[in-house]
Design goal:
Blueprint (H helix, E strand, L loop, with lengths): L15 H31 E2 L3 H28 L8 H7 L10 E2 H26 L4 H25 L9
Parallel strand pairs: 1-2
Helix pairs in contact: 1-2, 1-3, 1-4, 2-5, 4-5
InterPro entries: DPS_DNA-bd, DPS_DNA-bd_CS, Ferritin-like, Ferritin-like_SF, Ferritin_DPS_dom
Family: Belongs to the Dps family.
GO molecular function, one term: oxidoreductase activity, acting on metal ions
Length: 170
């Protein structure tokens, strides 16, 4: 992507170098959340079997929530003087994980795979919080709030995978 449209300024009181580093961290989170949003919708369309309707209906609010997160991150990138990259090419070229492998499949298989997706997204969000701590308190706070929602979404998924004694079946 061309950087010719990158602003020569950032948020007042913030150093340009800190903003550039924060933008890079936020761009990775943007890519991850755009990918997650698409993956959630893919699962929504392709889940079958027992408990289909409960899982099908559980996923749409997660899609909406993650979509809101992407908008918030993209707007923060722009606020800091960056250019949010949300194209399909940006998602594919910047992501550091494998594509979601399941097509039409049973509820439990999709939820086990989705739990692993959330493991990655949530762990990376936590790492981003650590990086943002010294760069930008506003971005750190924003990503922290998002992580709380993402962890709740994962809890909803895990409730379907958890046995009565607290083990996850995967």
């Amino acid at each position: 992507m061309s950087t010719s449209n990158v602003a020569t300024f950032t948020a007042p009181g913030m150093k340009n170098e800190s903003a550039e580093q924060a933008i890079a961290v936020l761009q990775q989170r943007l890519v991850a959340l755009l990918d997650l949003q698409l993956t959630l919708k893919h699962i929504h369309w392709n889940v079958v079997g027992p408990n289909f309707i409960g899982v099908h209906e559980m996923l749409d609010p997660q899609v909406d929530g993650v979509r809101d997160m992407t908008d918030t991150i993209a707007e923060r990138i722009a606020t800091l003087g960056g250019v949010p990259e949300g194209t399909p090419q940006a998602i594919v070229s910047k992501r550091t994980w494998d594509d979601y492998k399941l097509g039409k499949d049973l509820v439990m298989n999709h939820l086990a795979a989705l739990d692993k997706v959330y493991n990655g997204v949530n762990s990376d969000h936590r790492a981003a919080i650590e990086k943002l701590e010294d760069l930008d308190a506003v971005s750190e706070d924003m990503v922290t709030g998002q992580l709380a929602d993402l962890e709740q979404y994962q809890w909803f998924v895990r409730a379907h995978l958890e046995s009565a004694n607290g083990d996850l079946s995967q």
